[in-house]
Write a structure and sequence with these properties.
The protein folds into 2 domains: 34-163 and 210-315 and 507-568, FAD/NAD(P)-binding domain (3-Layer(bba) Sandwich), CATH 3.50.50.60; 319-407 and 434-501, Cholesterol Oxidase, domain 2. It has 15 helices and 27 strands.
Length: 573
């Protein structure tokens, strides 16, 4: 990197210190610059228009506002209106909420797997399990990111929202069980991605309160930023002239009452529209704006601005398979606190003591009852303690835990297509889970490791001896986890188990891939004044959980864009 950039970074640091030293910064949730889109004027002009106030959009906007005027258009509401809704104990009720005001918009992929898409300021960081872990060095190298600036950007995020999680009895026992199962060494607490078993970070504080990417707006200059909520962008406006490259001019967005607004870029030629709408939203909006596969656009009568067949392609979701393990002993409320990073391409994580919705609790009770009725020990303590009685599961946390197995870097990939021309609706998505046999083998090996950890000596206090590994598999097979058909051998064959009970871990990515739709500077190929900064550009999911890197990328690219604005094209290493 050039001397000018580090000089620029120093100036940003000084101005940031001066700005916050004067106590002009604002604390969440009392942002004066956040308003409902119904309050927006009909026409607005800004240096940067960011579509999506999510995990990347919030840190990007906060950074750009240090030296430019920034508009953020978020289709969802504010996480601060109900501050306890997204806290640790409400993880599953929050994620499974299907009301119109929910933070998660549900969809089902064409593969028959239930999924969700964030719809709130702060994006996925408002609805996820909170684990914070950095990307592996290979990911950063492949993306061409500068190591020093990456570390600086991670630290900027971590100062505000990352914490060390508590390791209580259940989580500690399972971690030790993974070590017994051979996921070595024990790396203790670290944000870094290291083979073995490690305690990672969390965005939940000591009071189990969630901190999100929206909190990074505390870094913003309140006089240079405006955030509009329930602002649904319908399309990007382009200027197309003969012998000139297509150039983004602004966007059209609609407020909650259906009124249209026009947000336009200032006359400065360095002003830009930046898509940060995520792996579904960014390719969908490109297509609705006329950039995408021409045949698909013409099908919906969309004027083709640029034929770009790679938009919506290379969409990947990391397959997730789980074990639900009832416990004879009380368990703590915990979300993901540690991870086992195997060398064969599988990640093992877990949560305990969580609350389900009543319908899910009944499903668990019914499936477990069916399994126990097949054994001669059905009158054991487990049976008698009320696991069979759904009412015992409705108002209390589940006494037990869920162990997750995630496939790293799946080869199988899918695609996204428009379902209609309504930007509020989810597009049609196909992930092609386990299409590649290599992905299936990773799952099989990972589930075997998870089973070994459950039946380890370290974890013996938190499992019922009468429940065999086959019984645990059968429990999952009998739960309505997806819409996929079941094989008769699902509880006997781990290959069939993986295929039949596959779920999402909500780490889907791609659709606007680096090198295919955007260049190394995240500029859309063939278009001026348009970038994409979010997980849709990823060729793989960074680290064990992507949120840390998505937030880092927002900060990183914000600094890069400002440097380019004031010092010209930034230099590579």
């Amino acid at each position: 990197m050039g001397f000018e950039f580090w000089m620029f970074l120093s100036l940003v640091y000084v101005s940031h210190f001066h700005f916050h030293g004067l106590s002009l910064a604002e604390k969440a949730p009392y942002y004066s610059f956040v308003h409902e889109a119904t309050m927006a004027p009909e026409v607005l002009f800004y240096d940067y228009i960011i579509i999506g106030g999510g995990t990347a959009g919030c840190p990007l906007a906060a950074t750009l506002s240090e030296s430019a005027n920034v508009l953020v258009l978020e289709r969802g509401g504010s996480p601060y209106e109900n501050p306890t809704k997204s806290d640790k104990g409400n993880f599953f009720p929050n994620l499974l909420d299907v009301s119109p005001s929910s933070y998660a918009q549900e969809f089902t992929s064409e593969d028959g797997v239930y999924n969700a898409r964030a719809r709130v300021l702060g994006g996925g960081s408002v609805i996820n399990a909170g684990f914070y872990s950095r990307a592996e060095p290979e990911f950063l190298k492949q993306a061409g990111l500068n190591e020093a600036l990456v570390n600086y950007s991670y630290q900027w995020v971590e100062k505000k929202i990352a914490f060390e999680p508590p390791m209580l009895q259940w989580q500690s026992a399972l971690r030790d069980g993974l070590l017994e199962a051979g996921v070595l060494p024990n790396n203790g607490f670290t944000f870094d991605h290291i083979y073995g078993t490690k305690i990672g970070g969390t965005i939940f504080d000591g009071d189990d309160h969630r901190h999100t990417a929206a909190d990074l707006l505390e870094y913003a200059n309140p006089y240079r930023i405006k955030v509009y909520l329930h602002a649904t962008v319908e399309k990007i406006i382009f200027e197309t002239e003969v012998f000139s490259r297509t150039r983004a001019q602004g966007v059209v967005f609609e407020d909650e009452l259906g009124k249209k607004h026009w947000a336009l870029l200032t006359k400065d030629y360095k002003s830009e529209v930046i898509l940060s709408a995520g792996a579904l939203g960014s390719p969908q909006l490109l297509m609705l704006s006329g950039i995408g596969p021409s045949q698909q656009l013409k099908k919906f009568g969309i004027k083709v601005v640029m034929d770009q067949p790679m938009v919506g392609q290379g969409l990947v979701d990391n397959p997730l398979n789980v074990l639900l393990v009832p416990s004879p002993s009380p368990v703590e409320l915990s979300l993901v606190s540690f991870v086992g990073i195997t060398r064969f391409g599988s990640y093992i994580e877990a949560c305990s003591g969580i609350s389900f919705t009543p319908s899910w609790s009944r499903s668990v009770a019914k499936a477990l009852a069916a399994i126990l009725n097949q054994t001669e020990q059905s009158s054991t303590k487990l049976f008698q303690e009320g696991i069979l009685n759904p009412e015992s599961l409705l108002d209390t946390r589940i006494r037990g835990g869920i162990i997750f197995e995630k496939v790293k870097d799946p080869i199988s990939s899918g695609y996204l297509e428009l379902r209609n021309m309504n930007p509020r609706d989810n597009p049609k998505v196909t992930f092609n889970y386990f299409q590649a046999p290599e992905d299936l083998m990773k799952c099989v090996h990972g589930v075997k490791i998870a089973i070994d950890a459950v039946y380890s000596k370290s974890f013996s206090n938190f499992r019922y001896e009468i429940l065999s590994a086959k019984a645990l598999l059968e429990l999952i097979v009998n739960l309505p986890l997806n819409q996929r058909p079941r094989h008769l051998t699902s509880a006997f064959s781990l290959e069939k188990f993986c295929m039949d009970t596959v779920m999402t871990i909500w780490h889907y990515h791609g659709g606007c891939r680096l090198g295919k739709v955007v260049d190394r500077d995240y500029k859309v190929l063939g278009v001026e004044a348009l970038r994409i900064v979010d997980g849709s550009t990823f060729t793989s999911s960074p680290g064990t959980n992507p949120q840390a890197t998505v937030m880092m990328l927002g900060r990183y690219m914000g600094l890069k864009i400002l440097q380019e604005r004031y010092f010209g094209k930034y230099r590579k290493k």
